[in-house]
Amino acid sequence: MQKAIDIHSYLPHRDPMLMVDFIVNITAEKAETVFTIKEDNVFLDNGVFCEAGLIENAAQTCSSIVGKSYLVDDQAKDIPNVDVIGFISSIRTVKIHKLPRLGSAITTVADLISRYDTGGYTTCMVNCKSYCNDELLLEGEINLFIQER
């Protein structure tokens, strides 16, 4: 049994745009998250989680890798009063294999491919895959821009 890590320490997102429930595992180069689709989700359409929701879930999983360096110190303690903004700067590739339904639990795994830190902002490329019950839902490469305000 793995310990769940509170996502709020790694992402600035809040409801209704938070598409990750908790982090299962995170390092400087990899993150694994879990998200259960609930009936009040903004990306739910007739009981199906749409493509934009899957992409947002993947992007949030990916950004938690870099977000960790802005929001958590070397002793794994939250850094107070940090305001971070981030967005998808480009989607290099994305392939949607299947859309999950209401109540499904999505596991997303992200692997850092490259990272460039300027001191003022970070850009990175991350490979990601999302699964439901070991069935591949999404795979792709996302470029992110993250900056402390």
TrEMBL record:
Alphabetized Pfam families for the sequence: ApeP-like (PF22817)
InterPro entries: ApeP-like_dehydratase, HotDog_dom_sf
SUPFAM superfamilies referenced in this protein's UniProt entry, alphabetically: Thioesterase/thiol ester dehydrase-isomerase
Protein name: ABC transporter permease
Lineage: Bacteria, Pseudomonadati, Bacteroidota, Flavobacteriia, Flavobacteriales
